[in-house]
Amino acid sequence: MPGQIRASVLAGVVCVMVCLLAPAERAEAQQFRFDPLSEPQVTTEEIRSYERMLGLSGDQVMFAEVLLEAYMGGYQELRQEFRQIQQAAREEFRDTRDRQVWEDLQQVTQVFAERREQLDNQFLNDFRLVLTPEQAQEWGRVERFRRRFYTLSQGGLISGETVDLTRIVSDLSLNDEQREEIAPILDRYEMALDRALVARNEIYEQGMREGMRMWQNMQFAEMERRFTEAREAATRLRDVNRQFARQIESSLGQDMGRRFSREFQQRSFPDIYRDTVGMRALDQALTMDDLNDEQAERILQLQSGFMRQVDQANARLQEATEESEQNRSVRQMFGMGRGGGDAPVREARQAREQLDQTVMDRLRSVLTEEQFARLPGQERRDWRRVLEEEGGGPRAERARGGAEGERPEPRRRGAGGGGPRGDR
Fold first, then answer.
1. Positive or negative CA dihedral for 245, 249, 255, 258?
2. Rounded distance, CA 176 to CA 267, Å?
3. What is the count of structural domains for the chain?
4. Could you give the CA distance from residue 196 to residue 352 in angstroms, rounded to a whole number?
5. Is 387 exposed, middle or buried (0-12, 13-18, 19+ CB in 10 A)?
6. Out of 53, 83, 151, 304, which residue is the most buried by the measure of CB atoms under 10 Å away?
7. What is the pLDDT of residue 56?
């Protein structure tokens, strides 16, 4: 598919800055994480989607699977050749420390991206040969599906930008009547999203192509302009999702509409709307078979109040996140501007983490020590201990808190500390 992006414009800028500012060894290790051959662009999952979308016969599916096998053979050959080139570039850089290596590798990477694109197109062209005239008329749906499937998943700049509403709907247990009700909405959504996605991808790709040149020429004002342009395109894409999400929610009725809305919110802000340590601990505590009636009642009361507080904290964190996404600059994102622009997000996140710590402290007062020890996270190892286990040296000294102070004890999940982000 022409012009498939492999990462957002922001990722391109990150790569440029790592390449030019980081120490040589670190730059070498971080190069070209957005690899055009990191994964195939035709998959078994995709063929299954075509089967449902176009109503493929068994023979057509078998033919597609044969084509896929041939495609994967060509893909693996390309991938192996590209890995060898990457390794040769790393070795040359280790010997010469010449940063021109990375600029040349960027051009070679583009060549391999074009070769992989030719491989993709060969599969698609061969596959189209066995379609009926009626199926061929639906090919536009296939092209829109591929853009959603492969470019939304590459990431973005704005929360909610990369959500695919058609996937949320397919994951819901809808009856035939409900699917028929929202089918016209989904058809309009696919068209509107595709227009916004094509425009966004073009801006992202241009930023990636020119990011290295802008940084080398110290065109910071132009970088900011391009970043703002990319963010605006991402926001338009997000707004398409929000507009049609409201329509789908309304059409599905109260119960299923609420489930759809909750899933859309969670996929838009996966780092915010996830189960926290406190939630998991309360849920598990209520399943303990050795709770007495008084304990169970107190835990239910704790859970009720805690969930209300979490809902409020999540709403504040979402608001702070959205404001940060709309106002931050490239320079702020890399700590080059005043404050970095994320202080409200940090404070909102800390406030939510404090709720976890408070509810864990209260749970400790309700449960016995033996019961509390069975809650999630009690067995987690202090991973920083490995620095001390090495013995001596500046890293171990820092891990101990320095020569004049004791290292502060890290918060543990079981004692109220927040779990790793993205647990869900």
1. positive
2. 25
3. 3
4. 34
5. middle
6. 151
7. 96
Q: How much is the pLDDT for 222?
A: 83
Quick one: which of 377, 424, 161 has its CA closest to 272?
A: 424
- Identity of the amino acid at 67: L
DSSP string spanning 212-245?
A: HHHHHTT-HHHHHHHHHHHHHHHHHHHHHHHHHH
Q: How far apart are CA 40 and CA 306, in angstroms?
A: 45
Nearest Cα to Cα of residue 380 among 288, 291, 277 = 277
**3-state SS, residue 393:** helix
Cβ within 8 Å of residue 29, ≥6 positions away: none
Q: Kindly calculate the radius of gyration of the chain based on its CA atoms and give it in whole angstroms.
A: 26
Residues 177 and 69 in one domain: no
Q: Of the given ranges (30-44, 90-104, 250-264), which has the lowest mean pLDDT? A: 30-44
3-state secondary structure of 422: coil
Check whether residue 332 and residue 293 sit in a common domain: yes
Same domain, 263 and 281: no
Claim to verify: residue 93 and residue 125 sit in the same structural domain:
yes
Q: Which residue, 307, 297, 281, 266, is CA-closest to 424?
A: 266
User: What would the pLDDT profile of 178-226 be if each residue is shown by its tens digit?
Assistant: 999 999 999 999 999 999 999 999 998 887 777 767 777 777 788 888 8
Q: Are 147 and 256 in contact (CB under 8 A)?
A: no
**Phi, psi dihedral angles at 63 (to 5 degrees):** -65, -40
24-33 CB contacts, 8 Å cutoff, 24+ apart: 24/93, 24/97, 27/99, 27/102, 28/90, 28/93, 28/94, 31/89, 31/90, 31/102, 31/105, 32/86, 32/102, 32/105, 32/106, 32/109, 33/7
Residue where a domain stops, chosen among 138, 166, 194: 138
Total-model pTM: 0.74
Number of H helices, E strands in the chain: 18, 0
